Structure formats: structure tokens, C-alpha cells
């Protein structure tokens, strides 16, 4: 099987059988298709509470853009995860869907809303430049509306567009006004521009079913217009050394191991020497012999791309999610750092009780997750007093990791325990 076919195959397992996808037809005939950079590229996604309509809205967007020749229509079942994927558990990636507007080329992630899948949401959201938060008019904002907003903020999403969905199911106009007002307040409380954020009221289901265009298809157009104009084109860090955090790994019989993920910065040309950093004491040296972006062969991979890199001479089992691909000598893995951390309150979805020094949660950095131990800085007042950390506290602590991870001062991370985010932090100084 060709590299292209396998990548396609893998992403099909993640998102959809796409028999009508022109790219898949071409690839199955084994033509090399070059990825054209004719429009600026942006990564976005749907976030929001379970059942509020994220997947339905995603399907509606592809349907509408397909009518304009800008997408392949993916119905609900093709986007929502297949049962076997659910069985694969929490290591799966979220589905990447591709469409265009007049202005841009989008890769869209439909984040699963259920709390059990938030681990995926964290890495999925990490590749978002902007987001569409979906809130059902019938429910208003719910706990995951808030958690996803917080995560989005954390992973660097600067602007969000709101889609108030299921407007067809609400009779009361005042209810709609209330939902809108509360969303503006919530956005502001998380540091977004609540007063100016576009809020579109509509129904994804009506758009899919071709009913009530005034709240259906018209609102999908308005939504995409808002996304095009409100969410700024991110500045890609193309002049920095290449770095891609590995999200998924697979092997192609006869060709080798492919690591895929979103390129954080830099540009990598085919046949470059690279290192896989993290999880091990010393980096693994290898060479990138082929590159694919959006299932099309490329000579180079650049910041913002979702790419698959074919790695020479490394075994699949030696490549792990959470490692990074970087240029030789440019990145280092570390096991200990000083952090400034905010501990979430119970209202924010965090712990109900405090914790002591020697706390052992799971740490999430880029696509990595690793067992960690948090202690008070040696010699600090808190250490002497054996102080407790309470929800709502801002604390400085020392964090040690079970295995080394590539990291830099100034990077953000999440702390999770028992399936929920309990703290968010900033790496203030690398110790070891
Ligand atoms: N009445 C009405 N129902 C809708 C609308 N959009 C979605 N639904 C229904 O709401 C339910 C949930 O929709 P999904 O699209 O699966 O919601 P989701 O946010 O993706 O859910 P999770 O992925 O499980 O978090 C489905 O039964 C949809 O048919 C709408 O505009 N109006
Ligand atoms: Mg869904």
C-alpha cells in the first residue's frame, strides 16, 4: 500500500468512509497529488457541551460548502466516530474534516463532547487557531461549554464564534436573548471579547434537512462569514526551527513508520535529518523521506499543517505519541521544572477538595501525557508549613515527570486527574 493510501486509510478510520472524496479517488489510482497552497490555511473546530449539536453542525457546514464546490459532504454518520474507534479508547485522534470558503482553506476538528473524551479534546483543541462553540438554545450554557472555553483559551485560541443551535426547538424569543446574553458574559469572563463576538442563532438540523432556510442554511452562511472575518489569520512561525508534536503513529508495510501531527513551527523539507525527542533519555536520530499534508504528497511541511512524516529506519513501537520531531540538537527533553499553576475551582470543573505536596496527577503538554509529581519548592514557607493547595489557588510548585518530555520555558500545560482538568500551568523555569 502506498504512503498516500495508508494515510488516507488511517484518517478514514478516524473520520469517515469517503467514497465520493475526489482526493481518495485520485489517490486510489495512485497519482501523486500535490497539496496546493492557493488559500490561507486555518485550523478550527467545534467545541461545546455533549449533545448540543457539534457533529450535526459540522455535517451541515460540509453540506453547504459542498453545494458551492468547496467541500465533500460528510453526513453525520461519517463524522461521528465508528464503534470500533470508541473501543480504541482515549488514544484516538479527533476527526479532521476539510473544507473551503471563498477566503480560506479549513481543517476542522469535531471534538467529541463527552467528558470521557476530553483528553482528546485537549490535543484536538491544541491544533485550533479558532473555534466555533456550539450551545443549544434549549439548554443554554452547561459545564462542558465552560470547560471547553477554558481549554480553548489555554491552547491559544484568541477568538471564538458562537453558534446557538436548536433554535427550531425553542418557542420563546426571550429564552434566545437570555442564552445570547449569558454567552457574552461567559466569553468575557474567560478573557474573550464577549461584547463583540459574533453570535449566530440557527439550527444545524434544519440546514441538513433543508427546512426553514431562515434559521437553517442562511445561518450556516452567516456562521462561515463570521469565521472568515472574525477569526484572525494566525501568524505562522515559519522562520523558527521545525517542530511537530506527534499525535499518531502507524506503519506502512515495505515503506516504514509514519508519525503524524500538527506542525507547531518551522518548515521541513523532504530528506531532512531529524530527531525524535521525549520519552527517552536520548533522542532518536532519523531522516524524513516522504511528507504528506492533507493526504497529498508535499516537498515540505510547514507551521500549521497537519502532516504525516515517513521516518527512515525506526520501528513503529519506538515512536510514541507525545514525542516531538525536531531538527537535530534544537530541542531537549526534561524531567523537572518550576511552574506557576492555577488550580481550578469546583465550579470550573476542578477538585472539590485541596491536595498536599507530593500530589501525583497526569500532566498534558502538547500531545504528550505523563505521570507527574508536584511538590512545594524546597525551602519555601509552604514546604515548612506543609501547606495545602486549595481549589482557586495560584501556586508555584516543582513538577517532576516520570519520563522526560520536550519542553521550553513559557509553555502551558494541563493537569488532570480522574478524567477532569484540575489545574493549568505555565513552565517558568527548567530545572533538569
Ligand atoms: N431540534 C434540533 N435538534 C438538533 C439540532 N442539531 C442537532 N440536533 C440533535 O441533537 C442531538 C445531538 O446532536 P449531535 O450533533 O450529535 O451533538 P454533539 O454536540 O455532536 O454531541 P456529542 O458529540 O455527543 O457531544 C441529535 O439528536 C441531533 O439530531 C437542531 O438544530 N435542532
Ligand atoms: Mg458529536
TrEMBL record:
Its main location: mitochondrion. The keyword Transit peptide applies. GO terms for biological process: mitochondrial translational elongation. GO terms for molecular function: GTP binding; GTPase activity; translation elongation factor activity. Pfam families: GTP_EFTU (PF00009), GTP_EFTU_D2 (PF03144), GTP_EFTU_D3 (PF03143). PROSITE patterns: G_TR_1, G_TR_2. GO terms for cellular component: mitochondrion. Keywords: Elongation factor, GTP-binding, Mitochondrion, Nucleotide-binding, Protein biosynthesis, Transit peptide. It is found in: Mitochondrion. InterPro entries: EF-Tu_GTP-bd, EF-Tu_GTPase, EFTu-like_2, EFTU_2, G_TR_CS, P-loop_NTPase, Small_GTP-bd, T_Tr_GTP-bd_dom. Residues 39-235 form the Tr-type G domain. Belongs to the TRAFAC class translation factor GTPase superfamily. Classic translation factor GTPase family. EF-Tu/EF-1A subfamily. HAMAP family: EF_Tu_B. This protein promotes the GTP-dependent binding of aminoacyl-tRNA to the A-site of ribosomes during protein biosynthesis. PANTHER family: ELONGATION FACTOR TU, MITOCHONDRIAL, ELONGATION FACTOR TU-RELATED. This is Elongation factor Tu. The gene is TUF1.
Amino acid at each position: 500500500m502506498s504512503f498516500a493510501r495508508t494515510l488516507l486509510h488511517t484518517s478514514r478510520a478516524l473520520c469517515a468512509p469517503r467514497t465520493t472524496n475526489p482526493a481518495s479517488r485520485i489517490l486510489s489510482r495512485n497519482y501523486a497529488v500535490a497539496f496546493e497552497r492557493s488559500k490561507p490555511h486555518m485550523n478550527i473546530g467545534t467545541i461545546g457541551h455533549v449533545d448540543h449539536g457539534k457533529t450535526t453542525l459540522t455535517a451541515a457546514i460540509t453540506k453547504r460548502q459542498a453545494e458551492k464546490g468547496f467541500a465533500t459532504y460528510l453526513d453525520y454518520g461519517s463524522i461521528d466516530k465508528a464503534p470500533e474507534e470508541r473501543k480504541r479508547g482515549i488514544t484516538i485522534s479527533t476527526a479532521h474534516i476539510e473544507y473551503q470558503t471563498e477566503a480560506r482553506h479549513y481543517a476542522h476538528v469535531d471534538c467529541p463532547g463527552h467528558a470521557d473524551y476530553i483528553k482528546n479534546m485537549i490535543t484536538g483543541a491544541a491544533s485550533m487557531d479558532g473555534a466555533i462553540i456550539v450551545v443549544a438554545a434549549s439548554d443554554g450554557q452547561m459545564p462542558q461549554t465552560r470547560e471547553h472555553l477554558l481549554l480553548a483559551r489555554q491552547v491559544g485560541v484568541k477568538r471564538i464564534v458562537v453558534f446557538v443551535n436548536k433554535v427550531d426547538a425553542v418557542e420563546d424569543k426571550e429564552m434566545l436573548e437570555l442564552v445570547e446574553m449569558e454567552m457574552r458574559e461567559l466569553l468575557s469572563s474567560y478573557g474573550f471579547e464577549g461584547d463583540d463576538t459574533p453570535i449566530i442563532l440557527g439550527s444545524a438540523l434544519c440546514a441538513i434537512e433543508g427546512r426553514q432556510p431562515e434559521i437553517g442554511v442562511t445561518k450556516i452562511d452567516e456562521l462561515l462569514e463570521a469565521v472568515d472575518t472574525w477569526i484572525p489569520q494566525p501568524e505562522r512561525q515559519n522562520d523558527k526551527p521545525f517542530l511537530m508534536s506527534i499525535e499518531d503513529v502507524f506503519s506502512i508495510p515495505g515503506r516504514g513508520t509514519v508519525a503524524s501531527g500538527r506542525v507547531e513551527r518551522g518548515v521541513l523539507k523532504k530528506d531532512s535529518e531529524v530527531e525524535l525527542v521525549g520519552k527517552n533519555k536520548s533522542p532518536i536520530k532519523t531522516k524524513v523521506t516522504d511528507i504528506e499534508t492533507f493526504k497529498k504528497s508535499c516537498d515540505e511541511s510547514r507551521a500549521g499543517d497537519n502532516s504525516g512524516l515517513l521516518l527512515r529506519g525506526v520501528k513503529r513501537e519506538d515512536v510514541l505519541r507525545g514525542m516531538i520531531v525536531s531538527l537535530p540538537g534544537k530541542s531537549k527533553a526534561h524531567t523537572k521544572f518550576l511552574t506557576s499553576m492555577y488550580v481550578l475551582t469546583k465550579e470550573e470543573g476542578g477538585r472539590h477538595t485541596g491536595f498536599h505536596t507530593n500530589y501525583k496527577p497526569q500532566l498534558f503538554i502538547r500531545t504528550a501525557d505523563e505521570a507527574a509529581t508536584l511538590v512545594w519548592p524546597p525551602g519555601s514557607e509552604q514546604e515548612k508549613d506543609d501547606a495545602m493547595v486549595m481549589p482557586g489557588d495560584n501556586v508555584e510548585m516543582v513538577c517532576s515527570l516520570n519520563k522526560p518530555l520536550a519542553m521550553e520555558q513559557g509553555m502551558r500545560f494541563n493537569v488532570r486527574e480522574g478524567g477532569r482538568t484540575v489545574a493549568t500551568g505555565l513552565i517558568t523555569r527548567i530545572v533538569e
